[in-house]
Design brief:
The protein contains 9 helices and no strands. By secondary structure, the chain is mainly α. It has a single domain (8-160), classed as Histone Acetyltransferase, Chain A. Pfam families: MT. This is Dynein heavy chain coiled coil stalk domain-containing protein.
């Protein structure tokens, strides 16, 4: 198995849930591993965080009638990256995506990298550059959304190169 950003042979801190990467250092970690455009490296921390989301955490998020602004931003960015039109981006659509951990993880794992285009990148750039969208800030508002934020940042980093 080739080394990833979280493998021992890469010499990196393996527990990114304690200190999640930012959009800026995802690229630096991937580049230092010599595989800058490798989706597996860029997305590994996102999938690790998403794998840790359980049904009760999603239920808590879905129970919000008016979720904190940061959570709406994260989920809207994820929906746009997944191909939802701006008209279809809503908290109701986000709740549908969060119907179960398996449903959510499948949507993110099945993401077609070829669907990344200029319009998507423009939308994701606003998200990636927003300090309130960084994983450490998102964690304070809804732990279950950290993996989603990391995934959106990974899509942005991959598409930026």
């Amino acid at each position: 198995m080739p080394p990833t950003a979280m493998s021992e042979s890469a010499g990196e801190d393996k527990d990114w849930t304690v200190c999640p990467p930012t959009a800026q250092n995802l690229a630096a970690r991937a580049e230092s591993a010599g595989e800058f455009k490798d989706w597996e490296i860029v997305s590994s921390s996102a999938f690790t965080a998403l794998d840790g989301v359980d049904k009760s955490a999603l239920q808590e998020l879905k129970s919000y009638a008016r979720p904190p602004a940061g959570l709406i931003t994260v989920m809207n960015a994820a929906l746009m990256a997944l191909g939802h039109s701006e008209k279809d981006v809503s908290w109701a659509a986000a709740k549908k995506l969060m119907s179960s951990p398996d449903t959510m993880n499948k949507a993110f794992r099945d993401f077609d990298l070829k669907s990344i285009d200029a319009k998507m990148m423009a939308n994701l750039k606003r998200f990636a550059e927003d300090p309130d969208s960084q994983p450490d800030v998102v964690m304070k508002k809804g732990k279950a959304c950290v993996g989603v934020a990391l995934w959106v940042l990974a899509v942005y980093e991959y598409g930026s190169q």
